[in-house]
Amino acid sequence: MPNQYHNFNNQNLESHILFYGEQACQPDEYFEGNNLRKNDVLYYIMSGKGTFTSSGHHSVKLKEGDLFYIPRSQTCYFQADHDEPWQYFWIGLAGPGTNQMIKASNLPNKNFLRQIQNTKFFTTLHKIYGILNKKTSLLNNIQITSLTYQLFYHLVNEFPDHPPVRKTPKVDQYQIAIDYLNKNYTDPTCNIVELCNRLGVSRSFLYALFRKNTKISPQKYLMQLRMEAAKKELQNTTHNLKQIAHTVGYGDEFTFSKAFKRYSGVSPNVFRGN
After folding, report:
1. E strand or H helix at 82, and its extent?
2. What CA–CA distance (Å, rounded) separates 248 from 227?
3. Would the pLDDT of 227 be above 90?
4. Residue 122 lies in a domain
5. Residue 163 within a domain
6. How far apart are CA 50 and CA 38, in angstroms?
7. Other CB atoms within 10 A of residue 122 CB
8. CATH code of the domain covering residue 211
9. What are the tens digits of pLDDT across the range 126-146?
């Protein structure tokens, strides 16, 4: 049921849900504005992909299985991909304690979560959306109210603000680190702090792990991934520097150009001209 918007009226019960809907976007279709209402909105990407930006955060590319979050009173921008425009559903949340419960998770740290399909949080979110699209009844409203509290529980439990330290063998930690950087270097939020949090290790431990296995630091490894990908873009495409910067994980072309010159000894334009 694409392209729909509904207010949720649940006058007989305390409810955290104000509205919900679904949108199948056209290529490059975008939304830009301020979420000035006193609510928080969750968007789950059902198919396709696009780009999401919120106040104080880098632009990120998201796809089917990801979720993004628009906090109350925050500026946001999101745009469907040109070739694979996304379809998503959303649920607007409000009520006592809603914002505090969301802040107890790590969702507000970046305002998105990747690949949540196999989590109890998503299972509950999907159940809620399914019931919202059914005929209104007292039993359905009771179920929605109950599931909404379960949703907050699973969000905080599965995505805590401070994830617990994981006991993982060193050889596995190194492989996890390499896989994470190889898969996520195009994301501007991919960085060494995030990697340490995922592994549950200190920065010094991670650097020692990389020196032992690669003879270079994790930061330099990430830089190499981005710069070598940038070289291929410069040699094989006509993309401008802003496009290339975003493709290889930089938020703007100025920062990218400085990093490229530091890495290669020449500017991106000079490299492309050779």
Report:
1. none
2. 8
3. yes
4. yes
5. no
6. 26
7. 20
8. 1.10.10.60
9. 999 999 988 888 888 888 888
